[in-house]
Design brief:
By secondary structure, the chain is of the alpha/beta class. The protein has 13 helices and 7 strands. The protein folds into 3 domains: about 45 residues, Single alpha-helices involved in coiled-coils or other helix-helix interfaces (Up-down Bundle); about 220 residues, Rossmann fold (3-Layer(aba) Sandwich); about 50 residues, Helix Hairpins, CATH 1.10.287. Helix 1 crosses helix 3. The two termini are about 40 Å apart. Bound molecules: guanosine-5'-diphosphate. Keywords: Hydrolase.
Length: about 325
């Protein structure tokens, strides 16, 4: 494979090349991994060039199935394209690795965007662990940005760690919810409110509009308890309707406002840099664990050590030391 030519074609915005490049970063084959990393190095923006300021907006979107994510993304994406943006939609769906199919990123869910020249939709990779999906998605973001997509929407459903994973790869993390009040508020995973930079009560249309407004007020109250008064950014709660196209401008204005606030405080670029460092260490941890599990010396003593711990003839701490000694080859 000619990595230089592929990089050029991706930069030129050729769709077929982009698809090939994404398939390459999703691959787990050793020779593909190597080519993928060379490609990514070529396509990562040069930190010394004058055009270092990031132009893209990376936006995470989460919410339970049925909350209206695809309807919303379709509508928002079309609006943004109308304003001259190029929009990419990615999905992080850990369940796809088990079922081999994804409920997210399915092109049929975004009828208008899927036929747009200035949009690119990619479903969640269906191989590997959440770690594998996260890696492929992060690397795909680099490819998409190199290809000129300046709005990257990453959608996920709140399964396991997927929300944290997506929040760690985007600039702004948005939680879509339905009108919930009182006891129903308890049903919202607490963690997601802590992660969210923006909360939107969706389907605020027709007879649900008032309900949505009062739900938004309650949620705003709950959020005030989470974020201190002097926080740089206190997540606002919006109401909107993806179906009717209500509140989409406000949503996007809020995304840009969030960026402005972080940028003015010097936090925007810093957040991206921090994410890269965290990401580096996440990969080190993942690789180390894989090497540990695959290590012949560890494999050789594993059953015996576990048996001794079970029998109570070896403490857990000593067992851990023994396994690590075997791993270190000592
Ligand atoms: P997703 O599973 O989160 O992607 O949700 P969908 O976008 O597929 O929407 C689920 C259902 O809710 C569909 O029947 C949509 O037509 C409907 N829906 C989506 N957005 C809205 C909205 O803003 N208002 C109303 N009333 N219905 C909506």
């Amino acid at each position: 494979m000619d990595v230089d030519a592929l990089a050029e074609a991706v930069r030129g915005g050729e769709r077929a090349a982009l698809a090939r490049a994404i398939t390459l970063v999703e691959s787990t084959r050793a020779d593909h991994r190597d080519q993928a990393q060379r490609l990514l190095l070529k396509l990562t923006p040069d930190k010394h060039s004058s055009a270092t300021a990031a132009v893209s907006n990376r936006v995470g979107i989460t919410g339970v199935p049925g909350v209206g994510k695809s309807t919303f993304i379709d509508a928002l994406g079309m609006d943004l394209i109308g304003k001259g943006h190029r929009v990419a939609v990615l999905a992080v769906d850990p369940s796809s690795t088990r079922t081999g199919g994804s409920i997210l990123g399915d092109k049929t869910r975004m009828a208008r965007l899927s036929v747009e020249r200035n949009a690119y939709i990619r479903p969640s990779p269906t191989a590997g662990t959440l770690g594998g999906v996260a890696k492929a998605t992060r690397e795909t973001i680099v490819l998409l940005e190199a290809a000129g997509y300046d709005v990257i929407l990453v959608e996920t459903v709140g399964v396991g760690q997927s929300e944290v994973t997506v929040a760690d790869m985007v600039d702004v993390f948005c939680f879509l919810t339905l009108a919930r009040t009182g006891d129903q508020l308890q049903g919202i995973k607490k963690g997601v409110l802590e992660l969210a930079d923006l909360v939107a009560v969706n389907k605020a249309d027709g007879k649900h509009e008032m309900e949505a407004k009062s739900a938004a007020r309650e949620l705003a109250g709950a959020l005030r308890l989470i974020h201190p008064h002097d926080a740089l950014w206190r997540p606002p709660v919006l109401t909107m309707s993806g179906l009717e196209g209500i509140g989409l401008d406000k949503f996007w204005d809020t995304v840009l406002e969030h960026r402005r606030v972080l940028t003015d405080a010097g936090e925007f670029d810093e957040k991206r840099r921090r994410q890269q460092i965290d990401w580096t260490w996440t990969m080190v941890h993942d690789q180390l664990l894989r090497r540990l599990a695959d290590n012949p010396a560890v494999k050789a003593i594993r059953a015996q050590v576990e048996k001794q711990v079970r029998d109570g003839t070896l403490t857990a701490a000593l067992a851990a030391e023994e396994l690590l000694r075997a791993f270190d080859g000592r």
